Amino acid sequence: MLFVVGAMAALSIDVVTIYTARSEAQLAADAAALAAARVIANSGATSDSTGTLLTSVEASPGPARTVAIQVAEQNQVGGANLTGANITFSGPYSNPTVTVSVQVTNLPTFFARIWGTKFLTVGASATAEAYNPSGSSGTPPVAPMCVKPWLLPNIDPTQPATATAPPAIFNSDGSIVNPGLVGQGWPSAIPALNQNGLFHIGIGTAPVPGRYYAGVIDADDFPEPTQALPACSAGFSTYPYMVAIAGCVPRPISCGAGATINIATGYASKTGSRNGDTVEAAECLIHYDSAPGDTDSIDATAVPSPPLQFRAGAENPVVLSGALAAGADIMVSDSLVTIPVYNSTTGTPPTNPVTVIGFLQVFLNPAALSMPQTYAGTANQIPVTIVNMAGCGTAATGTPILGNGASPVTVRLISPP
Q1: CA–CA separation, 337 vs 406, rounded Å?
Q2: Residue 90 CA to its chain's centroid (Å)
């Protein structure tokens, strides 16, 4: 009877302990893999078909690997915190993916000790993907949320307005024409390139590199946000366009075949101009108060650059809460926004509706300058840096994969390779 009772106790307690520890290990691996994939998604690495940027992000001790270990170490397995020795990081495999494995070899047993088994080994692995559909034949499109109501023509935004035949951003299959645009922006420091920042161009005017058409703010295009609005947007309540910039547009915006959006032909203005409204709303979004350094920035000293590293500004809510110091490295930022790219024809004014064929993810005011800015004699422009490019092309069909917040590069758990 004692032997039977002992066996049942070992089965009921030790097996439950093993299963509980196995679940804890799986949660730790899931969290670490997703965190690493998010670093890859925000670094611009998925827009580089050569794999050079990805190697820099993933290599030991690259930022993706470092973050994966930091996240895993916040978890416990069998009552003990994980350490770097428990964690294995591998990848990428494709698109790219990263795999994090967690293993604990000293999980103590209880009743099983009567058979001489003092410790057990438990482990789990998780693979997360930073999904960028650009140029991948037969893949579904993406549909990020919180997309800003600025429709860029499919023209390299770094080119000057006088360029006779500027290259496109995306090919018709969604592939990226020039992966080297990641880390570049406009206005450019090179006089031969675009000397203007991001600003509006009116309906009926032919497309110009780096200038956007404003989208319609309605349920079918860019629904006006109603929740989680920053306090500084209180004065925008009668100006839906400004609310859509300062807040998060709740509708996922898709790209590919049939993904159409309308360009606005009229609007209610707070400042008297579309550009003035845009800058005031953007200042609210990125926490600009009154001085340089208020907003988050891109670390200009990071090597190599890209991959891109973001730094917290003095007015970042996390800095104001005391959780971080100004200048600290951060993974995400409100200055990081996604802009849809429509299938434009150079020299031809667009007619409604236009088809969204991809997205640019850009960082607003990357040097944390004072705002607003005047470039090439035109006021109320916003400097931007390109962080990611994600193209669907004109033929991508199927159920879109939802993005994570403002990123067009979706992060999701997939089956281990």
Answers
A1: 6
A2: 22
State the DSSP code for 239.
Answer: -
Give the domain range for residue 207: 132-408
Residue 168 DSSP label? P
Residues 109 and 172 placed together within one structural domain of the fold:
no
**Backbone phi and psi for residue 57, each to the nearest 5 degrees, phi listed first:** -75, -40
Same domain, 167 and 263: yes
Band of residue 2 on the pLDDT scale cut at 50, 70, 90: low
Contacts of 284 (CB under 8 A, 6+ apart): 230, 232, 233, 236, 245, 246
The pair of three-digit structure tokens given for residue 34, joined into one six-digit string:
């997703």
Residues 73 and 136 in one domain: no
Provide the residue type at 76 as one letter.
Q
Between 410 and 373, whose confidence is greater?
Answer: 373
Domain count across the chain: 2
Residue 416 lies in a domain: no
- The answer to whether residue 64 sits within a structural domain is yes
CA separation (Å) from 237 to 225, 231, 269, 289? 10, 11, 12, 20
Q: What is the pLDDT of residue 417?
A: 47
| Termini Cα distance of the chain | 47
| Burial of 155 (C-beta count, 10 Å sphere; 0-12/13-18/19+) | buried
Where does a domain end: 63, 98, 131?
131
State residue 3's pLDDT score: 64
Same domain, yes or no: 77 and 200: no
User: Which amino acid, 248?
Assistant: C
* 10, 61: one domain: yes
Return the amino acid letter for 170. F
Our separate counts of H helices and E strands in the chain read 7, 21
Q: 49-58, 285-294, 385-394 — which one is most confidently predicted on average?
A: 285-294
pLDDT tens-digit series, residues 240-290: 999 999 999 999 999 988 899 999 988 889 999 999 999 999 999 999 999
| Residue 105 and residue 198 in one domain | no
Q: How far apart are CA 90 and CA 73, in angstroms?
A: 17
Domain finish residue from 131, 161, 195? 131
Say yes or no: 100 and 144 in one domain: no
Give the model confidence (pLDDT) of 74-118 as tens digits. 887 766 777 777 777 666 555 677 888 887 776 666 555 555 556
Does one domain contain both 142 and 106? no
**DSSP string for residues in 195-253:** ---BEE--TTSPP-TTEEEEBP-STTSSPPP-SS--GGGGGGTT-HHHHHHHS---SPP
